[in-house]
Amino acid sequence: MIYLDYNATSPTDPRVVKTMTPYFYDISANPSSTHSAGYKARNAVDHARKNLADLLHSRIDEIYFTSGGTEADNIAIKGTAFAQEKRKKIITSAIEHHAVLTTCDYMQKFGYSIVEVPVDQYGIIDLEFLKTHIDENTLLVSIMHANNEVGTIEPIQEISKIAHRHGAIFHTDAVQTVGKIPVDVAAMEIDMLSLSGHKFYGPKGVGALVVRKGIRFDPLSHGGHHEGGKRAGTENVPGIVGLGKACEIAAHEMSADEKRLKKLRDRLWNGLNNKIPELKLNGHPDKRLANTLNFSVRYIEGESMLLQLDAQGICASSGSACTSGSLEASHVLLAMGVPHDMAHGSLRFSLGKFNTESEVDKVIQILPGIVEKLRVISPLYKHKE
Ligand code: PLP
């Protein structure tokens, strides 16, 4: 199998699995328990919190562990809204992950108005639109750090400055960037940040919300005093330990990984673009995650290409994991002004540290034949002028 779907989820690094293993059995006590086994589990959670704080340049007491990116996004949006009554506007972007978009939709039930900032053809946020729509009624600006489908990286610092000028809180969904590129919550003036372990070689079902000191938010789950009373429920100790280890590895390896992945990704794109006519790259040419390649293949459907690739042992995606499987075109590509037919013909290859040159070359060898066959039977291709 050739796995090229790392933005959906990455395999867990064997070093992470090794670090987690004792916490399923040998050190399996509840970290809230007041006996030595409990203290060991508590120490392990604290150690992971420190690894995360080091990677993100945050304080240790600014980190709240969650079940993943989705929960962190939910707490950031609902939690800040429910902690105050004055401001009633939330600004987000048209290309957010559904964890943000559907949470914002839900907030309309509570009287919040939602403004979606449009993006340009590369997926970059329209800062002028943001400046004209933000006001003293704006509670929160939630804009992702990098997009999961096309990899475009947003000008986070400029966005946070605009938010702060109006007294609004700035939240970023950094699920696709933490562990891949440097993130510094202090220098980037980020108030709240969501991350997820399984996107950078950590385990699934664990993530975190980073909340800068002074930002108020209500908890969504009530119960015990876990996570400073902000997220009740016994901690997922093995998961948290794994997330901590993934942070430690990323701190040492992400910069070298990024350079290697960019070369691999560009090799893939150049190889395919030379062999297949009428491809169009989606996403920003440079301000883009080094591992992400999204393009449209004119005249055919992304889904049919995916099936054929899968039959040959190649795993890719036609958009985000949540929308693929539905036959709707990607909301991200449509927001970028990609025409419907081209949006339906999109493919996303997202690479990771376990990919090799020979895997990439195999795709360059296989995909052109698949496209040729599908185009022969495509009515759109037959009727092209
Ligand atoms: N936000 C972004 C940008 C994502 O790519 C994802 C996962 O695909 C999520 C949020 C959701 O994260 P999780 O799977 O940890 O809930």
What does this structure look like?
There is one protein chain. With 385 residues, this protein is α/β, with parallel strands linked by helices. The protein has 2 domains: 136 residues, Aspartate Aminotransferase, domain 1; 237 residues, Type I PLP-dependent aspartate aminotransferase-like (Major domain) (Aspartate Aminotransferase, domain 2), CATH 3.40.640.10. The chain is 41% helix and 14% strand. The protein has 13 helices and 12 strands. The strands form 3 sheets. A 7-stranded mixed β-sheet has the order 2-8-7-6-5-3-4, sandwiched between helices. The chain is globular. The protein starts with a strand and ends with a helix. Pyridoxal-5'-phosphate binds next to helix 3.
Sequence-ordered SSE layout with sheet pairings:
Layout: E1 2-3, H1 14-20, H2 36-56, E2 63-66, H3 69-82, E3 89-93, H4 98-107, E4 113-117, H5 127-133, E5 138-142, H6 156-165, E6 169-173, E7 192-196, E8 207-211, H7 226-229, H8 237-275, E9 279-282, E10 292-297, H9 302-311, E11 314-315, H10 331-335, H11 340-344, E12 346-350, H12 357-376, H13 379-382
Parallel strand pairs: 1-11, 3-4, 3-5, 5-6, 6-7
Antiparallel strand pairs: 2-8, 7-8, 9-10, 10-12
The structure holds pyridoxal-5'-phosphate.
Pyridoxal-5'-phosphate is lined by residues 68-70, 73, 97, 99, 144, 148, 173, 175-176, 196, 207, 321.
